[in-house]
């Protein structure tokens, strides 16, 4: 069962999402919150698999709430998915850096919402190719991040190759095909890289790949 916490200051949106999610046999909404501070407290109380959280809220916004969830060892298994009205903007980028697994636009169709919850619960990144391109564009004029670059030294050549492919939006099966290895081995390379780079999930792995210079902005 995938346990979901809804955090949004719009009661109507929370009710609509809950009604949709609770219809599924494998998904359960365990709690709702109207701001980030309440959401953080409920995350600690219920330990959900997924937190669907609005990016802009009173008291504590979604970015800071995401940052605190990501920094709390007791919430290591919680995947945060950002809800936004605006598509990819600077706030979503900051949320990804804070530890979010991805983002959803609030007018998402029901089928895509259900798919996204299941994808995030598996630990995969919710980053469509268009979002990856936005990340690339963001780094065109950005200096390399020294700490991220140093972290690459801990990776094997095959792990670096796998991370670069993750940053290009490939799934484990696609990485396996490209590297001519089994999907399980591809998953192992990705997971070991995440551990060594202290990345919570694939979304952070993508960010680190660009911050470190492993993938250059012109590689689209």
Explain this structure to me?
The modification 4-aspartylphosphate is found at residue 54. It holds the Pfam family GerE. Keywords: DNA-binding, Phosphoprotein, Transcription, Transcription regulation. With 220 residues, this protein is an alpha/beta fold. It has 2 domains: 2-126, 3-Layer(aba) Sandwich (Rossmann fold); 144-212, Arc Repressor Mutant, subunit A. The chain is 52% helix and 13% strand. It is built from 11 helices and 5 strands. Strands 2-1-3-4-5 form a 5-stranded parallel sheet, with helices on both faces. The longest helix has 15 residues, at 183-197. The protein is globular and about 50 Å long.
Ordered list of secondary-structure elements with their pairings:
Elements: E1 2-7, H1 11-21, E2 27-33, H2 36-46, E3 50-54, H3 62-71, E4 79-84, H4 90-98, E5 102-105, H5 110-121, H6 129-138, H7 146-151, H8 157-167, H9 172-179, H10 183-197, H11 202-212
Parallel strand pairs: 1-2, 1-3, 3-4, 4-5
Helix pairs in contact: 2-3, 3-4, 8-10, 8-11, 9-10
Domain Response regulatory: 3-121
Domain HTH luxR-type: 148-213
Protein name: LuxR family transcriptional regulator
């Amino acid at each position: 069962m995938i346990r979901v916490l809804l955090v949004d200051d719009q009661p109507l949106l929370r009710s609509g999402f809950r009604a949709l999610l609770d219809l599924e046999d494998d998904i359960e909404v365990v709690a709702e919150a109207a701001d980030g501070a309440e959401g953080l407290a409920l995350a600690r109380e219920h330990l959900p698999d997924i937190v669907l959280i609005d990016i802009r809220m009173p008291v504590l916004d979604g970015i800071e709430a995401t940052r605190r969830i990501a920094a709390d060892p007791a919430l290591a298994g919680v995947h945060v998915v950002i809800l936004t009205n605006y598509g990819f903007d600077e706030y979503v980028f900051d949320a990804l850096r804070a530890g979010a697994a991805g983002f959803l636009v609030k007018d998402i169709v029901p089928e895509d919402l259900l798919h996204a919850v299941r994808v995030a619960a598996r630990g995969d990144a919710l980053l469509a190719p268009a979002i990856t391109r936005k990340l690339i564009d963001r780094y065109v004029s950005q200096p390399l991040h020294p700490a991220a670059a140093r972290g690459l030294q801990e990776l094997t050549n095959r792990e670096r190759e796998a991370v670069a492919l993750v940053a290009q939006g490939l799934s484990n099966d696609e990485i396996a095909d490209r590297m001519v290895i089994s999907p399980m081995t591809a998953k192992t390379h990705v997971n070991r890289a995440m551990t060594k780079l202290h990345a919570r999930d694939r979304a952070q792995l993508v960010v680190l790949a660009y911050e470190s210079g492993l993938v250059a902005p012109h590689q689209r």
